[in-house]
Amino acid sequence: MRHIPNLLSFFRILLIPWFVWEMMANEDTLTAAVILAVSGLTDMLDGMLARRFNWISQLGKVLDPAADKLTQITVCVLLALKLHRYWFFFAILLLKEFSMLVVGGYLVRKGVKLGGAKWFGKVVTVLFYVTTTILVLFPPIPSWVPTTLLALTTACAIATVLMYIPDFLSYKKEIPEDT
């Protein structure tokens, strides 16, 4: 039972190619939106189970954020290709995801044991899933809706990166001298 959160994270990674297929090959936005919503819900579920039953593992601390980053990067790239006029928002969101991935990977490689996501990281993740699911499901909506949703999501993503900087600096101090 304690491996359920890790299995859910792995499942989210397996959903990525299916999402890409539905968006690009089939152009089936309904199925793609359902896949994205399922990915977001399993992300919430794996975190809730891990915390509630103390099923937290070092693998999960790497696998869950990796699944998040891979999903979010994929979604940003596909939506930037599909919704050209909003490329700037997706570029910023991609930059946020890549920077978090690089910093997290650096810390893990240096042997730092990472804590779980902070509340503000969870908020921006939920906002990302809600926004992108709406954009996938309703592509012909008035332009003010995607602009507003993406501006809000992007502003929260930037704020999240800024709020994680003190954590990064604190973790950096934990890096053993000999590495």
Protein described:
The protein has one domain: CDP-alcohol phosphotransferase transmembrane (TM) domain (Four Helix Bundle (Hemerythrin (Met), subunit A), Up-down Bundle), CATH 1.20.120.1760. By secondary structure, it is mostly helical. The model has no long low-confidence stretch (mean pLDDT 91).
List keywords for this structure.
179 residues; mainly alpha; Four Helix Bundle (Hemerythrin (Met), subunit A); 6 helices; 80% helix
Integer average pLDDT: 91
Main sheet attributes: strand count, strand direction, barrel closure: none
The CATH superfamily label reads CDP-alcohol phosphotransferase transmembrane (TM) domain
Write down the CATH class: Mainly Alpha
Assign an overall shape: globular
* Poorly predicted spans: none
SS class? mainly alpha
In CATH, the architecture is: Up-down Bundle
Q: How widely separated are the two ends?
A: 36 Å
Q: Counting H and I runs of at least 4 residues, what is the number of helices?
A: 6
In the CATH scheme, what's the topology name?
Answer: Four Helix Bundle (Hemerythrin (Met), subunit A)
Percent of residues in helical segments? over 70%
Query: Using only CA atoms, what is the Rg?
Result: 17 Å
- Counting copies of identical and different chains, the oligomeric state is single chain
User: What proportion strand?
Assistant: under 5%
- Please trace the helix and strand order, writing H or E for each element: HHHHHH
Domains counted in the coordinates: how many? 1
| Strand segment count | 0
